[in-house]
Design a protein that fits this description.
The structure holds 2 protein chains of 2 kinds. By secondary structure, chain A is mostly beta strands. Chain A contains 3 helices and 30 strands. By secondary structure, chain B is of the alpha+beta class. Helix content of chain B is 56%, strand content 10%. The chains are: A mainly beta, B alpha+beta.
Chain lengths: 422, 200
């Protein structure tokens, strides 16, 4: 897929951003949502020649869904150019064309809603098999121009999913819940996926007996044993997490004495260092975006609680989660917050702790148990699993609980991780 | 018996008969000439002896084979019986033990059960067992894998204190990945918080 847009952009970007009410949302802590006015976007369907009509319709449907999921937009998709009473802020026109000797092209025009003044124009081209990816890219380019923050339509969510009794494998879906792809085929228990910023996967698999950490040393490379270096170790290896620079993997090592400690493997020299040695369970390591701090779960106080430490293991300190049993820490991309799950009223709920004011905000409510939060790469959303009667689905929760969407209809899922890397 | 000896015996019998009969002796008649046969050659004798030896050896071998097969069959039967006995004993001894919520200590009520398991391990010292730690659904997937390992570990250390060597055991944790039931109530949670034993 290529874009030949640079020369074709006729955009007054500054003016474009200035007219939009959502520009300047802060990460993790959105401004008061009641004051946040959705941008009304009209997406007219332009039907081309007969042979393009099917592709055009498919493209328009994917793009409409992407923008409706994006959050700041109120979309109206219609087959007429005049949206009636909508009075849109923006009109997003797309035209799918197939030309001889070429892949198909998609012309995108963004117009000011009232005056129909052209704000920008861009042409995308590619093969029809990439229709979903191109629609996602159009959506993300549009979102970036409208809000200043790149959209998430091109991102993906990896997770573990039960395929048959006792067998779990790693899968991914696109942000819109479509495009399911199975990434491991071990016919074994395979858990805890972590995605490096360059798209390399790491996970735990029981395929050789005791759980080991497997994954990719190279981008697009084969899946190999990452740790232990030699098989048949007596330790159990758990919960891998890529460092932001992709050079290290934090993980938990559980030994025959019953202790579990957070370790870090340096992939360059295979050196392993120990970050905790307090006895008890120290597990679920999670890096911050700078690689200088890690959050983890420890029961050193008697019950599982969230802690923070420096990346050399120094200065471990407890995060105040109001004393509840707490697990699954995930640091927000801006480092201001940690999402986690906690036991509240006989269920697990997802909460966000803000370090700046030590507040804990519960973002899940109602029936069922929620856990395993993971931040979206832009820090505006959290995905997690929500289970009722033992059946777990993926959910996406935006703006600290004010917008909740199911992510597809997949059942028996766990441990999601969210990445832009493709 | 060879032909020449037969001839000689026949001749003797005739003479004897003639002597014993109280009859007037009749004029002696020359006995019919006995055809003189030539004896077997040395080579034939040797070949025969070798064949005899081979036959004897073959018979011996067959008998030995039969005995070996019988012994093997016997050993198999004994081993199968021993195996069956081990399985019966294991089925009795390898019963799950259970844990309190978020705990990995051996409960007083499970001690007699672990004593039985220890007795079994002492009766079958060659046996290796895998101890699997499991949890209920309330902790998170990753945390529970560590908790399950600690449950397996405390169970192993209890059995070591009762006299079994560490090399008898391998530990694995399945956290909440392999629940026996999925209802969200204490009855089900209690079933899932367990150490499970498998013969290796």
């Amino acid at each position: 897929m290529r874009s030949r847009s640079k020369s074709r952009m006729h955009v007054a970007v500054a003016a474009f951003l200035a007219m939009l009410p959502v520009a300047g949302r802060s990460q993790g802590r959105p401004s008061n949502d009641k004051q946040m006015k959705a941008v009304k976007v009209h997406l007219p369907l332009t039907r081309g020649a007969t042979d393009d009509a099917k592709v055009a319709l498919q493209f328009w449907q994917i793009l409409s869904k992407d923008l409706s999921l994006a959050g700041p937009f109120e979309t109206v998709s219609s087959e007429v150019d005049n949206p009636g009473t909508l009075e849109p802020d923006l009109v997003l026109r797309t035209k799918v064309q197939r030309t001889p000797l070429k892949p198909f092209t998609i012309q995108v025009q963004v117009l000011e809603g009232r005056t129909h003044r052209l704000l920008y124009r861009k042409v995308y081209e590619g093969s029809p098999v990439w229709i979903r990816r191109i629609a996602h890219r159009v959506a993300d380019d549009f979102t970036e121009r409208a809000t200043g923050v790149r959209g998430l339509a091109e991102s993906r969510i990896v997770f573990a999913r039960e395929t048959s009794k006792g067998v779990k494998e790693i899968f991914q879906v696109d942000r819109d819940g479509e495009g399911l792809l199975q990434l491991t085929h071990y016919n074994s228990l395979t858990l805890s996926p972590s995605m490096a910023s360059d798209g390399r996967l790491a996970y735990v698999t029981y395929k050789g007996g005791p759980p080991e950490i497997w994954g990719q040393r190279k981008v697009g490379g084969p899946h190999v044993r990452l740790y232990p270096l030699e098989p048949n170790r007596s330790e159990i290896l758990l919960s891998p997490a890529w460092s932001p620079d992709g050079q290290q993997i934090a993980f938990a090592q559980s030994d025959k004495r019953g202790n579990c400690d957070v370790m870090v493997l340096d992939l360059k020299d295979q050196h392993v260092r120990r970050l905790t040695s307090r006895g008890g369970n120290n597990t679920e390591p999670a890096w911050d975006a700078t690689g200088t701090r890690l959050a983890f779960t420890s029961d050193r106080s008697g019950t599982p609680q969230i802690y923070l430490m420096e990346s050399d293991g120094s200065n471990p300190r407890r995060v105040d989660t109001e004393g509840r049993r707490s697990w699954n820490p995930a640091l927000s991309p801006d480092g201001n917050c940690v999402a986690y799950s906690a036991r509240i009223d006989g269920k697990n709920e997802v909460l966000v702790h803000d370090f700046r004011n030590s507040s804990n905000t519960q973002i899940t409510h109602g029936e069922g148990s929620s856990e395993a939060p993971a931040w979206s790469p832009d820090g505006h959303w959290i995905t997690y699993t929500h289970s009722i009667s033992g059946t777990a689905h993926l959910m996406v929760n935006g703006f600290l609980g004010h917008m909740v969407q199911p992510l597809g209809a997949l059942a028996q899922v766990q441990s999601p991780d969210w990445t832009r890397a493709r | 018996m060879t032909r020449s000896t037969t001839t000689a015996l026949l001749a003797g019998a005739i003479l004897l008969g003639a002597g014993l009969a109280c009859k007037k002796p009749e004029p002696m008649q020359a006995p019919a000439p006995v055809p003189v046969k030539q004896g077997p050659s040395q080579a034939e004798l040797d070949a025969k002896a070798a064949a005899d030896r081979r036959a004897a050896e073959e018979a011996k071998r067959r008998q030995a084979e039969q005995e070996t097969a019988q012994q093997a069959e016997q050993a198999r039967r004994v081993a199968a019986e021993r195996e069956a006995a081990l399985k019966r004993a294991a089925a009795k001894a390898l019963q799950d033990v259970h844990f309190d919520y978020d705990k990995s200590e051996i409960r007083a009520e499970d001690r007699p059960q672990l004593q039985k398991l220890s007795d079994f391990l002492k009766a079958y010292p060659a046996v290796k067992i895998e101890i699997q730690g499991h949890c209920d659904e309330r902790g998170t997937n990753e945390y529970n894998l560590a908790l399950g390992n600690r449950r397996a570990s405390t169970t192993m250390r209890y059995l070591m204190a009762l006299g079994s060597p560490e090399q008898t055991f391998t530990l694995i944790s399945f956290g909440k990945e392999k629940p026996l039931c999925t209802e969200g109530n204490e009855v089900c949670w209690r079933r899932n918080r367990r150490a499970h034993f498998e013969l290796k």
